[in-house]
Design a protein that fits this description.
The complex is a heterodimer of chains A (about 110) and B (about 120). By secondary structure, chain A is mostly beta strands. In chain A, the strands form 2 sheets. In chain A, strands 2, 4, 5, 6, 9, 10 and 11 form a 7-stranded mixed sheet that branches. A 4-stranded antiparallel sheet of chain A has the order 1-3-8-7, with no helix packed on it. The N and C termini of chain A lie far apart (about 35 Å). The relative contact order of chain A is 0.34. Chain B is about 0% helix and about 55% strand. In chain B, strands 2, 4, 5, 6, 9, 10 and 11 form a 7-stranded mixed sheet that branches. In chain B, strand 5 and strand 6 form a beta hairpin. The termini of chain B are far apart. The chains are: A mainly beta (about 110), B mainly beta (about 120).
Chain lengths: ~110, ~120
């Protein structure tokens, strides 16, 4: 199975901060990478696919980049509703696997 | 509005069975692959399995941890996806989510719609 490693596991930030989350795959996955946001007690929300394409309706302050094994999710200016846990997922190879998650909490 | 609503969760003893349902609405069910994921308490997301769209014959695949115990099926006329869970273990305790694939020509880009989840607790 492809292992997905996210860092950091948690980050404390303030509204307006730029937040960067990285995701590394144990082998190359091209751009078959998605990002999700999950709030406590809620289902994941689809943010980004193909490493950098914003899903419909997702705010433009979210952006993704990368290919191969190294990927990044950036929140350009953190908003109150962005405090949540973020997961990367590879869809290149079965089984689809997730990173361990990065929790963005309030500083 | 596109919606997925899971049901069927509950408390079940080890070794017993449970069937979850994912009732869908607002889209052409047969055109989409449907996946099941789970999230153990305080843990991350784990893929359980999928059923491909009608175009791909509804083919199924499963995670190694559930293969041989869980069965995914779909009723195209009712627009419902099912997850039948047999020989349940304590480690199957989790919130179970169904989700819809965003795919083109069989290539999956992600899961764009999720249900609210249903909780399964396996305990004696």
């Amino acid at each position: 199975d492809i292992q997905m490693t996210q860092s950091p596991s948690s980050v404390s930030a303030s509204v307006g901060d730029r937040v960067t989350i990285t995701c590394r795959a144990s082998q190359g996955i091209g751009t078959w990478l998605a990002w999700y946001q999950q709030k406590p007690g809620k289902a994941p929300k689809f943010l980004i696919y193909s490493a950098s394409s914003l899903h419909t309706g997702v705010e433009s302050r979210f952006s993704g980049s990368g290919s191969g094994t190294d990927f990044t999710l950036i929140i350009s200016s953190l908003q109150p509703e962005d405090f949540a846990t973020y997961y990367c997922q590879q869809t290149n190879t079965l089984p689809p696997t997730f990173g361990g998650g990065t929790t963005v909490d309030m500083k | 509005e596109v919606q997925l609503v899971e049901s069927g969760g509950g408390l079940v003893k080890p070794g017993r069975s449970l069937r979850l349902s994912c009732i869908t609405s607002g889209f052409s069910f047969g055109d989409y692959g449907m996946n099941w994921f789970r999230q153990a308490p305080g843990k991350g997301l784990e893929w359980v399995g999928f059923s491909r769209s009608k175009a791909y014959g509804g083919a199924t695949e499963y995670a190694a941890s559930v293969k041989g115990r869980f069965i995914i099926s779909r009723d195209e006329s009712k627009k419902i996806a099912y997850l039948e869970m047999n020989s349940l273990k304590s480690e199957d305790t989790a919130v179970y989510y169904c989700s819809r694939e965003m795919a083109v020509l069989g290539y999956v880009y992600g899961l764009d719609v999720w249900g609210q989840g249903t909780t399964v607790i396996v305990s004696s």
